């Protein structure tokens, strides 16, 4: 993408937010950085005698980002006739609540990826994004993505992207391993890192997608999920069900709400392999 310099300067004169963003980006790039995108700490190793030791300040945010929890909610309505007459052999109210909660969790997973404010696909650092070399996801592309961060513990990819990657491995005569998970199930792995299918990543109109690599957990400065510590009428972590009463039409009403967000603790906690083509197989 190319923009004429004069057009850019004219745009910056009218867009204060864009100008501030670019100024901050230029300032950060001018400072010495380590491979994780943090300020480099000056060290001395192997010196002899009375050498003067270097000093530095560890990078920290003066105004750290504050994540507000997002939510998904709905009102479940059940006619009292159903609750009275059709609760045996199964509890219809509980079953309808279960289905409602499952649907809310599905929406929650989609938001953790696609929400423009905190979703991983929109909030991954630009320095942690790379494009494929030729279109389809090759072993070289996966190695590049893996090498951008320490201790990557999971890949997430659309099932069609996984198929395209296996196709490229077959072309090169490479075998792909499988790892055993804690629950005993098998997962495809690359370089010992499991590759999980995740259809919610989605496909573009041009039949392309992205592959996510991440390190998870607060102890490892990875990606962490955010949720309330405790809620009134909580039935699952971050999710509660509140009885709203019975209407004049004899309908039971329940308010079902889930609160959530997600945050990479440092820039290299998550990376993206973008513009992954899934519909082209070279002969």
Written account of the structure:
The chain has helices at about 5-15, 15-30, 80-85, 90-115, 120-125, 140-145, 160-170, and strands spanning about 70-80, 130, 155, 175-180, 185-190, 195, 210-215, 225, 235, 240-245, 250-265, 270-275. With about 280 residues, it is α+β, with helices and mostly antiparallel strands. It has a domain at about 70-225 and about 260-275. A 7-stranded mixed β-sheet has the order 2-12-7-3-6-5-4. Strands 1, 8, 9, 10 and 11 form a 5-stranded antiparallel β-sheet that branches. Strand 10 (about 240-245) and strand 11 form a beta hairpin. The radius of gyration is 25 Å and the shape is globular. The two termini are about 30 Å apart. The model has no long low-confidence stretch (mean pLDDT about 85).
Query: What class would the helix/strand composition place it in?
Result: alpha+beta
Gyration radius, in Å: 25 Å
End-to-end CA span: 30 Å
Portion of residues within helices? 25-40%
Tell me the major beta sheet.
7 strands, mixed
Total strand segments: 12
Work out the helix count. 7
**Outline type:** globular
Question: Strand sequence of the main sheet, in spatial order?
Answer: 2-12-7-3-6-5-4
- Unreliable spans are none
Written as H for each helix and E for each strand, in order along the chain, the element string is HHEHHHEHEHEEEEEEEEE
Strand content: 25-35%
